[in-house]
User: Fold this.
Amino acid sequence: MKPFLQLVFAGFLAISPCLGNERERTLSLPSPQGGNLAIQAGAGFLKVEGREGQTTIEVRAKIVLQGLFTEDLETFIKDKVVLTLEKTAKGATLKAEVKERRWFSFTRGAQIDLTVSVPTATNLSIEDGSGSLEVRTILGEVAISDGSGDMVVENIQGNLTVDDGSGSIEVRNISGDVKVDDGSGSMTLLRIGGSVTVDDGSGSILIDDVAKDVHLKSTGSGALTVKNVKGRVHRND
Assistant:
C-alpha cells in the first residue's frame, strides 16, 4: 500500500470508533384521566403496545446520531433533541424529534427510536414522520398520520383512522370501523369488525373478512382483492 493511502486508512480507523453514537433515555408518566395520549415523532421507528394492568405510560427512547464525535454528542442532544412526556389539558403528549438536522462531515442523520407501553384502555393520536410504525393491543380509538415507512396495526377494539404517505400497511383484528387514506404502498386489511373505507393512490389492496360495508372511494393502481364481506361493497372509481 502506498504511504499516502496508508496514512488516510489509518486516520479513518482512528476516528471511526467516535462515530455512530447512541444514547438511551426513559420517560414515565401516570396515565391521565380519560386515557388520551398524543404522540409526535420525527425520524425513527415507533412501537406502541397496550399492556393489561399497566397504569403508567412508559417510554424507552434510543437516540441515534450517526457521524458525531463523542465529545459533541451530549451538547447536540441538549441543544437539538426534543424528548418530553407531559400531561396536557386533553391527556398526555409525547414529543420526540430533532429540532434541526444538519449534515456534518461523516454525518448521515439523526433519529429517535421509540418503544412505548401504555394501559390497554388508551386512546391514541399519532403523528409520525418517517420510519416503521407498530401499534398493538389498544382498547380505545387510534388515529395515525404517517409520512413514510411500513406500518402494522393489530388488535384494536376502537375505530382506526390512518392517513399515510407511503409504505406498506398491514391492519388486522380491528373491532371498530377502519378508514385508510393512503398515498402509495401495499395495503392489507384483515378481520375487521366494523366497516372499511379506503381512498388509495397506488399499490395492491387486500381486504378480507369484514363484518359491515366496504367503501372504495379510490383504489388507484395495483391489484384489488375484496372478499368475505358480510355487508355491501361500494365502489366509486
Observations:
- The chain has two domains: 19-123, 141-237.
